[in-house]
Amino acid sequence: MSSPGSPRVTMAAVARRAGVSPMTVSYCYSQPDRVAPDTLRRVREAAAELGYQGPDPTARSLRKRHNDAIGVVLGEHLAYAFEDPQARRFLTGVAEVCRERGSGLNLIPTTGADQDVERVRSAAVDGYIVWTTVEDDPVLEVVRGLGKPVAIHGGPAVPGVQVVGIDNRASARDIAARTFAGAQRPAVLSFPFDRERRPRLETGPDADQVPFPVTRERLQGVYDHCAQAGVDPRGLPVAVVARNDREEAAAMAALLFDFRTPDAVVAMSDQLAFAVLDTARARGLRVPEDLAVSGWDDGPDAERAGLTTIAQSLLDQGRTCALIALGDRAPGGSAAWTTRVRSSTR
What we know:
By secondary structure, this protein is an alpha/beta fold. The protein is built from 13 helices and twelve strands. It has a seven-stranded mixed beta sheet, sandwiched between helices. Helix 6 crosses helix 13 (314-325).
């Protein structure tokens, strides 16, 4: 048996021990159905005696010119993939395609550090999925230049790369019209504006200057409705959270209510909307009589909470991104969305 530090046992050595050709040993690992059962048994026994661990995956990927894996560039710390409900549903869709196609999944967290570019460039993957990021993210230029298929979820738009996601501006315009109907003190609980992720409360921030495309387009859509309804968006309170997290968002919701108790809030996700509902209950406000609330995504808890929300399938969008990263042609146009009107709005 081989021991740590000893030379790697080769396929040729296994072939000599079993009395077969190296090609037969290769078939035993890559296409065992092509090998006679007795021969397969002899090769496996010889491999066990010598401590052979199987073909070198690096060498195999070089010969095949592909790695049988997709890389997902998160733009977040690794735990985000498991903590954020949106990311979990999206990655479930990616994982489904990987299972169906026999591909691996490589999560590549990037947080703005100097090592990000090299980590992405050196990933042994056949294609990339980039979670929504900013236009000047250096990772975008890297993945474009590698000659591998790339899908970007949520934006930004990059020449030659397909963006997968809903029309955030149109959906925001629609949900704002339903949520702000009859409101005198409308407000927004917003996703982070940029990679700095600084929580804050602003009044009428310039939507066009927001770096994150999903946040920017949703805020633009809300402002579109305000312009149509004769409401000056420059007076609209916008509370910005650091993360899409219900408990963390509660602090910004409280700050928003302390600043000026709203009678309608468009929240940029169901989780943020739940934080608003929690705050409203704690302050004795009735929904929707005193406060109308809406969210995005139509997650599993939205219907139980009676939440008006934008329904979209992040799982399907994950599947689409995975197919693009594997080299398939994806359907053109934006992903489907619809507005679910429930009891949280008037």
